[in-house]
Amino acid sequence: MKTKALYSGSFDPLTMGHMNIIERAAKLYDELTVGVIDNPQKKTMFMPDERKSMIRETLIGLDNVKVYHFSGLLADFVNEGGYNVVVRGLRGTTDFDYEIQMAQMNARLFQEKVETVFLMTDPRYSFISSTMVKEVFSLGGDITGLVPDVILRKMSK
Ligand code: COA
């Protein structure tokens, strides 16, 4: 059976931590979708369409990876898209409590058997968050190596 995996998030912006999870998940599954959430309640630096196209540009060369954006319930997107796996990155124990709750709630909402699979973040990136990257950048700090070069160029514009 072909495995279709989904890795979703705000990606505002995509960081090297996210990239690491994407590259590893792309090797594990036949097809990986990066699902960019469009959550009007969250104030973002980039619009969902911008995030989607920036991520597409960053991921050129990863042939089994697609990028879409979606709104509403993640479980609806999973059910409609026929995904078998939801991938999440775990940076540490603080992520774990929130992630287990979300995975268990989603499990109730999935129509077919879908596994949430956690990949441990590479320790080189475990301190990174999109909010911190934006804060350091907006105050003039150097974020080279924390976000992919394509993203850094877009942020600098
Ligand atoms: N490396 C670096 N940073 C990481 C990371 C990694 N491997 N994994 C997570 N992060 C960071 C992100 O950068 C982000 O940082 P920020 O808060 O500073 O912006 C933070 O973790 C949170 O991630 P984010 O992707 O923004 O949101 P989320 O963890 O809340 O989950 C969805 C996103 C799409 C999975 C979730 O919001 C969702 O399911 N939404 C749909 C609505 C729904 O179904 N709700 C019911 C859920 S049970």
Observed structural traits:
157 residues, alpha/beta, Rossmann fold, 6 helices, 20% strand
Secondary-structure arrangement, i.e. CATH architecture? 3-Layer(aba) Sandwich
Strand order of the largest sheet: 3-2-1-4-5
**Proportion of residues in helical segments:** 40-55%
Count of discrete domains: 1
Order of helix and strand elements from N to C terminus: EHEHEHEHEHH
CATH superfamily annotation:
HUPs
Q: Can you count the beta strands?
A: 5
Count, helices: 6
Quaternary organisation: single chain
Based on Cα principal axes, name the global outline. globular
Overall structural class, as computed from helix and strand content, comes to: alpha/beta
What is the CATH topology?
Answer: Rossmann fold
C-alpha Rg (nearest Å) = 15 Å
**Which molecules other than protein and nucleic acid are bound?**
coenzyme A
Strand content: 15-25%
CATH class: Alpha Beta
**How far apart lie the N and C ends?**
44 Å
The description of the largest β-sheet is:
5 strands, parallel
Average predicted confidence as pLDDT: 96
Report on this model:
There is one protein chain. By secondary structure, this protein is α/β, with parallel strands linked by helices. The chain has a single domain (4-151), classed as HUPs (Rossmann fold, 3-Layer(aba) Sandwich), CATH 3.40.50. Helices cover 42% and strands 20% of the residues. The chain is built from six helices and five strands; from the N terminus they run βαβαβαβαβαα. β1 (4-9), α1 and β2 form a beta-alpha-beta unit. α2 (48-58) runs antiparallel to α6 (149-156). Bound molecules: coenzyme A. Coenzyme A binds next to β1, α1, α3, α4 and α5.
